[in-house]
# Entry
Amino acid sequence: MKVIHKTSLGYGSGTLCANSGFVPLDVQVQDGSVVLWYEVDSPHVASSSVQYQAVGTGHPFDSEGWQYIATVQTPPNVWHVYIKVPE
# Structure
């Protein structure tokens, strides 16, 4: 069984804990916060860490091994959200 969860993302890099079967669905601004919605397996499955980064427009970063998810705007900033591709 799948479950959809959401978590607020900080700006820059971070890690979130998610159950196995993690699938990012969307990133949007909700109540002034950048929020990631994601799908996981049943809550009873072992958890893992998922790294993310929210990169501002014009800021350099190493994109190798990262998967683009979405772009969101929090005027005057624009953020491009990536997750680390599991190896």
About this structure: The first strand starts at residue 2 and ends at 9.
